[in-house]
């Protein structure tokens, strides 16, 4: 009994310490890291959409959102109908109060992420440094998430709980977490492909992968087909102007900027953006094949989830800035060993936070707005750094055995796995 109580006290203390560290770092970051977001547009869109649906209106029609808002709305509602009732508790409050509650929830989610990362993936990484990277990494992705009110933090926690389960060979739990994470933006369902990768204790789980995909399809499509009349509006969403630059550092964002066209759908002529994107993706996958083959032979679930996260981020056509929370841990855990001759994790951590700290310093020094304008390279620096990390791993790290890093209560090199 005494041991259980001691463990509980230690656990609560660790939570409180991490929460305090994250809050102390996040408060000035939210105040001084420059972003293009002036209010939580995403949260307000969720609020307006839920209110519209409760009135029998089509939340996918921006005119209805404008009617509920009593003025212009920053962005349309794009998520599947099943997500609308999930947002109802927030919509029951005044929008300002909902924003405060949502921000508090997101703070807890970030604390949970930091603790999860340290427990399962970076057990020997200093808590303060990890929290610092979590707040400022990849152009302060967490700050963008807090200011926008997006669901990215919730999505990331679900994914990383699933990744932790995957490393422990709990593939059913992994599949359920990925399905839950994909309910909003669908694309994270790509991680279900990891179920087809064998490990030392598991063969490819084809039936589980098919079942998880069927479950996700049912959760997305059945409410849209059999739900209220407004739910069918989900099928009539028209692709809007694609974001680019600092809000969407990605290969497609760079391509769109070079072509000077952010609005033509990829599936319509002249297909220039689609052709260039497919060429980039094919080249990157082709370069990655030898390393992926070595990972296949090593059958290490931990390496697979870290590598899959980076590849997903590089190949995704819409990798918004706040979604770069996904690749903080892979950069530190997978790429850093390849950079051991020049500092390893210290070098990686410095590169991860450099852009946000530089932009923050411009604000603190009252630099004129012109000096903070982003060109194509600077606007896409998160993507370019991640691409450089991956190429470095392919050249220097992909053929090496990565040091195991299980939970802190396991000894290095003797990690137990459960069937």
Give a written overview of the molecule.
Helix content is 62%, strand content 0%. The chain has one domain. It is mostly helical and 419 residues long. It has helices spanning 2-32, 41-54, 62-69, 83-86, 88-91, 95-120, 127-148, 152-167, 171-185, 206-226, 251-259, 272-298, 301-315, 328-335, 345-364, 376-379, 381-397. The chain contains 17 helices and no strands. Helix 1 (2-32) packs across helix 6 (95-120). The chain is globular and about 60 Å long.
Indicate the topology.
Blueprint lengths: L1 H31 L8 H14 L7 H8 L13 H4 L1 H4 L3 H26 L6 H22 L3 H16 L3 H15 L20 H21 L24 H9 L12 H27 L2 H15 L12 H8 L9 H20 L11 H4 L1 H17 L22
Helix pairs in contact: 1-6, 1-7, 2-3, 6-7, 6-8, 7-15, 8-9, 9-10, 11-12, 12-13, 13-14, 13-17, 14-15
Structure described in brief:
The chain has 419 residues and is mainly alpha-helical.
List keywords for this structure.
single chain, 419 residues, mainly alpha, 62% helix, disordered C terminus
Number of DSSP helical runs: 17
Shape: globular
How much of the sequence lies in strands comes to: under 5%
SSE string, helix = H, strand = E? HHHHHHHHHHHHHHHHH
Q: How does the major sheet shape up?
A: none
């Amino acid at each position: 009994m005494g041991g259980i109580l001691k463990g509980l006290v230690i656990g609560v203390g660790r939570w409180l310490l991490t929460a305090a560290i994250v809050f102390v770092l996040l408060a000035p970051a939210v105040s001084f890291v420059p972003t293009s977001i002036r209010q939580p547009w995403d949260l307000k869109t969720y609020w307006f959409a839920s209110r519209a649906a409760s009135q029998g209106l089509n939340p996918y029609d921006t005119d209805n959102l404008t009617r509920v808002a009593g003025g212009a709305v920053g962005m349309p509602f794009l998520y599947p109908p099943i997500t609308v009732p999930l947002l109802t508790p927030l919509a029951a409050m005044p929008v300002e109060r909902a924003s405060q509650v949502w921000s508090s929830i997101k703070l807890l989610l970030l604390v949970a992420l930091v603790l999860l990362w340290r427990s399962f993936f970076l057990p020997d990484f200093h808590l303060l440094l990890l929290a610092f990277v979590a707040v400022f990494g990849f152009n302060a992705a967490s700050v963008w998430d807090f200011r926008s009110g997006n669901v990215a933090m919730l999505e990331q926690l679900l994914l990383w709980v699933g990744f932790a389960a995957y490393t422990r060979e709990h593939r059913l739990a992994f599949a359920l977490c990925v399905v839950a994470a994909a309910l909003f933006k669908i694309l994270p369902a790509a991680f279900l492909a990891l179920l087809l990768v064998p490990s030392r204790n598991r063969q490819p789980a084809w039936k589980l992968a098919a079942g998880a995909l069927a479950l996700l399809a049912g959760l997305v499509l059945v409410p849209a087909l059999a739900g209220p009349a407004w739910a069918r509006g989900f099928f009539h969403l028209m692709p809007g102007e694609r974001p680019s630059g600092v809000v969407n550092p990605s290969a497609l964002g760079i391509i769109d900027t070079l072509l000077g066209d952010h609005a033509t759908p990829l599936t319509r002529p002249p297909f220039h953006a689609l052709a260039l994107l497919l060429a980039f993706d094919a080249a990157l996958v082709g370069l990655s094949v030898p390393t992926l083959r070595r990972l296949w032979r090593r059958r290490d679930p931990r390496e697979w989830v870290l590598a899959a996260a980076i590849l997903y981020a590089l190949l995704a056509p819409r990798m918004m800035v706040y979604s770069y929370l996904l690749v903080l841990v892979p950069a530190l855990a997978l790429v850093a060993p390849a950079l051991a001759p020049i500092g390893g994790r210290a070098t990686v951590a410095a590169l991860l936070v450099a852009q946000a700290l530089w932009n923050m310093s411009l604000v603190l020094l009252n630099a004129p707005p012109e000096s903070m304008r982003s060109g194509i390279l600077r606007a896409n620096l998160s993507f370019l750094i991640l691409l450089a990390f991956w190429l470095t791993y392919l050249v220097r790290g992909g053929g090496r055995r990565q040091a195991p890093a299980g939970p802190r209560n396991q000894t290095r090199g003797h990690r137990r796995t459960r069937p």
